[in-house]
């Protein structure tokens, strides 16, 4: 019996480590593209953040008006876009397609770039209201012709910021840490 005790003392921990390493590796390497850094799905209408947020200096909240009022930042409706594009660049095929979608009353089928797994809860409001710039998580969108995910949607990225938020907070902020308990993000 002594021989079996010795074998189990080494075999069981080694097996547990091997199983854990396998599970973590499979989880990492099989993550859907929509959670990975660099994800940039094709959109139904070409839209340049470089032009709108960069050159024209439109504020993020103009198009993503839910960012201070709801969990989700929101995606602009065709009517919002048509506020300018009734008279601007109307000869372009993409704007003509936009006008047709707006006239139909259908929503624009934008493809989400920044998504999280279903088991993760995220609310834009406390982050925006704390003065954290959109670029902290979304990257320098005002320089992007095609919006691309600049930050991987991994728990470690969020926790790193919650543990030391000084780099993203405005000067003089009284906030020293973000929530780190599991139920803050997993509900």
UniProtKB/TrEMBL annotation:
InterPro entries: Cyt_c7-like, Cyt_c_III, Multihaem_cyt_sf. Residues 121-187 form the Cytochrome c7-like domain. Coiled coil: none annotated. Keywords: Metal-binding. This is Class III cytochrome C domain protein.
